[in-house]
Amino acid sequence: MKIADIVRITNGKVVCGNETAEKEITHAFSSDLLSDVLTINRVGILLITGVANLQTIRTAEMAEVACVLIVRNKKVTQEMIDLAKENGLMIIESPGSMFGTSGKLYENGIKPLY
Amino acid sequence: MSGIGSGITGEMKEMTYAFPIEGGDFIKAGHASSNIKKILNQLSLDPAIIRRIAVAMYEAEVNVVAHAYRGSMKVFISPEKIRVRVEDEGPGIPDIEKAMQEGYSTASEKVREMGFGAGMGLSNIKKNTDKLDIRSTINKGTVVEMTTFTKPKEA
Ligand SMILES: Nc1ncnc2c1ncn2[C@@H]1O[C@H](COP(=O)(O)OP(=O)(O)OP(=O)(O)O)[C@@H](O)[C@H]1O
Ligand SMILES: [Mg+2]
C-alpha cells in the first residue's frame, strides 16, 4: 500500500516525508510499548502508536521502521520531525484510535507481523 | 562525530569510540547508539547484524537513562567482532537473573510514560547479541557488555 492510501484510509496527515512516495508498505505493528517495537524482526514496516516523543523516533531509527503513524490526535514536535528527517523516516498524524486505525488498515490489506 | 582514539591491539587493528550517556535525559537518549550505528553503517557489515547491534545497544542505553545516574557507551570494532560496553554509575541490579526475566521491571511512572518499562529490554539484548555479560555492584553501577561476531557477507 502506498503512503497516500494510508493517509486517505486513516484520515491522516503527513507531517514528515513525501506523501507521494512510491514506497510500498505491506506490514504494520501497533504498540504503545517501545521495547515491544524493538522486538520486531522485519524492517520497513508501518508503526502505529500513540506514543509521541523523541524516543518513538529513536526506536523507529533503530528498528528501521519506514513510517510512524501517530494515533489519538497526538501532535509531533519539531524535534521529532528533525530527527525523523535525519533518518529518512516518514511520520503521519491521525485522529483515530489505535484499534480503529489498525482495523481500517487491516481491512485494506496491510498484514500483521504475527 | 565525537569518538576517542583508535588503537592497535596485538597485531589486529581495533577501532574504539566512546560516547557519554546522561541519566534521566530522555531527549538525548539514543544519541550514543545512533552515532555508533552510523559508524557501523560505514563498514561493510551485513545490515541485519547492524540492526541487531543497534537494537541491543539502544536498549542498554535507555536502561542507563531510565535506571542509572550517568554512564558511557564504548564500541570496540575489529574485523571479527563488534563489542559494545555500556557502563554506568547507578543503583546497580540486585538480582540479574530476575532482571533478565521478561516482564520484570522497576521502571518509574515517568519512564513508563515515555513508552518504556515493559521489562523486555534485557531479554531483547540477549536475543540480539552473540554474547552478553552483565556485572553489577549495588550502589555503584552496572556494566553490560555485548559481543557480536561479524560473519563475512556472502559473495
Ligand atoms: N543499568 C541499570 N541500572 C540499574 N538497574 C537496571 C539497569 N538495567 C536494568 N535494570 C533493572 O532491570 C530491570 C529490567 O530491565 P529491562 O531493560 O529488561 O526492562 P525495563 O528497562 O524495566 O523495561 P523496558 O526495557 O522493556 O523498557 C529494570 O526495570 C531495572 O530494575
Ligand atoms: Mg530496559
What are the defining features of this structure?
heterodimer; A: 114 residues; alpha/beta; Udp-n-acetylmuramoylalanyl-d-glutamate--2,6- Diaminopimelate Ligase, Chain: A, domain 1; 6-stranded mixed sheet; 5 helices; 19% strand; B: 155 residues; alpha+beta; Heat Shock Protein 90; 6-stranded antiparallel sheet; 6 strands; globular; binds adenosine-5'-triphosphate; binds magnesium ion
Describe the structure.
The complex is a heterodimer of chains A (114) and B (155). By secondary structure, chain A is α/β, with parallel strands linked by helices. Chain A has a 6-stranded mixed β-sheet with strand order 1-5-4-3-2-6, with helices on both faces. In chain A, strand 2, helix 2 and strand 3 form a beta-alpha-beta unit. Chain A starts with a helix and ends with a strand. Chain B is an alpha+beta fold. Chain B has one domain: 2-Layer Sandwich (Heat Shock Protein 90). Helix content of chain B is 32%, strand content 30%. In chain B, helix 2 runs antiparallel to helix 5. Chain B starts with 6 loop residues before the first strand and ends in a 6-residue tail after the last strand. The complex binds adenosine-5'-triphosphate and magnesium ion (MG). The site of magnesium ion (MG) has 5 residues of chain B, from helix 2.
In terms of quaternary structure, what is this?
heterodimer
Which chain pair has the greatest contact? A-B, 21 and 23 residues
How are helices and strands ordered from N to C of chain B? EEHHEEHHHEE
Order of adjacent strands in the largest pleated sheet of chain A: 1-5-4-3-2-6
Please tell me what the overall shape of chain B is: globular
